[in-house]
Amino acid sequence: MSGQMTVNPSLEGVVASAKAAKGAKGLPPVHKWNPPFCGDLDMRIAPDGTWYYLGTPIGRPELVRLFSTILRKDGDDYFLVTPVEKVGITVDDAPFVAVDFTREGEGRDQVLTFGTNVGDHAAASAENPIRVEIDADTGEPRPYVLIRANLEALIDRKSFYRLVELGAQHEIDGVDWFGVWSDGVFFPILRSSDMDDT
Length: 198
Hints:
With 198 residues, the protein is mostly beta strands. Helices cover 15% and strands 43% of the residues.
């Protein structure tokens, strides 16, 4: 959360403000809004993309989608932002999960478009890069793709395996990497020299 003292902003108030701010097309311009901070809401997004309120999963997909449209990341903190209020929430890993992707074209010319658990779509590109972290304890890769405005999606395991099947070798600054191409950009996954160890 934001590190500020927890107050009790109203979930109903946030829902009403979010519905009122919802545009006819596209996402609300949360990056333009600068409302007062109203405290932290007891809301959490788990690593699997499940949204919780007061410790209970939010079972209404349309409500989760509504909240996802007003989500903003400022620094390391996440907020639900409307024109009239800003409330902090907890995100355990990434706020979204990339649950699938489509591929158009082949090789360097292919474009990989990811779909998330909340209905967003983004083509991996220079503006929406793929990055892979390696867990220091397990050595397991944790792949992410930027969906919009500092908000990433964790690429789920089945999608990551499909990405690996599309992988290619490419040299970056004299180092051979294994990775994937999308929209003319190469996204490294693992040093080629490390692949012998996996």
